[in-house]
């Protein structure tokens, strides 16, 4: 049973909002300010939920639709929070032909989320990537900075258990 589109509730703090407002007021009158504001906002919050986009829109006068369009166009921006443990499965050619698609599917099943999502407890997030340059270890996934190579679907439970 995959994702019921579990969303992690937005929990911004007053300190975060104060930092964001400071960034906006510092940059908003500069030409091309939206990208640096969004980048700094993501640094502050870790992602760009609609609540943060609305603050940016209200404070800069930039329509929310335009902000959302920029956020969804550039892959550097995240609409969903990332988990404490960021899992990334390589789906590049070398990894894919050696079974990384099955590994990715097993992780979605095990975690109850789809790619780009975070578990409701905020512990794990799951993403796919194209190549991490470890083709000789295919199939490969990373959890934060830890690389796991020559994976089999049967390895997933033991690997995840290390992070429980």
TrEMBL record:
Q: Which UniProt keywords apply?
A: 2Fe-2S, Iron, Iron-sulfur, Metal-binding
List where the protein spans the membrane. Answer: none
Query: Which cofactors is this protein said to need?
Result: [2Fe-2S] cluster
Name the domain of life.
Answer: Bacteria
Q: Which family does it belong to?
A: Belongs to the complex I 24 kDa subunit family.
Name the PANTHER family on file.
NADH-QUINONE OXIDOREDUCTASE, E SUBUNIT, POTENTIAL NAD-REDUCING HYDROGENASE SUBUNIT
Could you tell me what this protein is called?
A: NAD(P)H-dependent oxidoreductase subunit E
At the highest ranks, the source species' classification is: Bacteria, Bacillati, Bacillota, Clostridia, Lachnospirales
């Amino acid at each position: 049973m995959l994702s019921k589109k579990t969303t992690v509730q937005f929990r911004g703090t007053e300190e975060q909002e104060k930092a964001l407002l400071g960034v906006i007021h510092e940059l908003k009158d500069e030409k091309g300010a939206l990208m640096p504001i969004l980048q700094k906002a993501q640094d502050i919050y870790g992602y760009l939920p609609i609540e943060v986009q609305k603050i940016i829109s209200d404070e800069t006068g930039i329509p929310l639709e335009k902000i959302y369009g920029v956020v969804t166009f550039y892959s550097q921006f995240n609409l969903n929070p990332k988990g404490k443990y960021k899992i990334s499965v390589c789906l590049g050619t070398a990894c894919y032909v050696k079974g990384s698609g099955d590994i990715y599917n097993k992780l979605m099943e095990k975690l109850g989320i789809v790619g780009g999502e975070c578990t409701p407890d905020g512990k794990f997030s799951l993403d796919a990537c194209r190549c991490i340059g470890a083709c000789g270890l295919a199939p490969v996934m990373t959890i934060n900075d830890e690389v796991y190579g020559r994976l089999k679907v049967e390895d997933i439970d033991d690997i995840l258990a290390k992070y429980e």
